[in-house]
Design brief:
about 140 residues; alpha+beta; 4 helices; globular
Length: about 140
């Protein structure tokens, strides 16, 4: 063996993982934005700054947080390995995500028992409960603003 075996993370239902994704998104945004560009207000503004060549496309912060801007989105990897990927919603500075992005997050934190369809159902349920908003940019996209 290469080291001690780690216990698998506790099993969570799909809604719990979506809520954890949203919590990590807030943590990621709080970590990246002030340290990268204090004048930039949010991940959406960071992506815009990268597109305008006013901020680096990739950057690792002193705390180990890493971001990588891609197209109209950003993948943020927290020091614990949690991956939070978002796109910018065209209707403002909102961040949008779908079941596939939440599934990538779930995989990164050890919840590989969940499927994209399970997470899609959880996203829709949370939107129906008013905890998320459906993005106007297409079926299956959500924002937390």
């Amino acid at each position: 063996m290469n080291g001690p075996e780690l216990d698998p993370p506790p099993s969570r239902d799909a809604k719990g993982v979506v809520l954890e994704y949203l919590r990590c998104l807030r943590v990621a945004e709080a970590a990246v934005v002030p340290q990268t560009a204090p004048a930039i207000d949010g991940v959406a503004a960071l992506v815009t700054a990268v597109i305008r060549r006013q901020a680096p496309r990739e950057h690792r912060l002193p705390d180990g947080t890493h971001y990588s801007v891609h197209g109209i989105g950003c993948l943020i990897t927290l020091p614990d390995g949690a991956e939070v990927d978002v796109d910018i919603d065209a209707n403002g500075p909102l961040l949008r995500f779908n079941a596939w992005r939440v599934w990538m997050f779930a995989e990164s934190v050890g919840h590989d028992e969940l499927t994209v369809p399970q997470l899609a159902t959880a996203l829709e349920d949370l939107a129906s409960e008013g905890l998320l908003r459906r993005s106007e940019e297409g079926t299956g996209w959500y924002t937390n603003g």
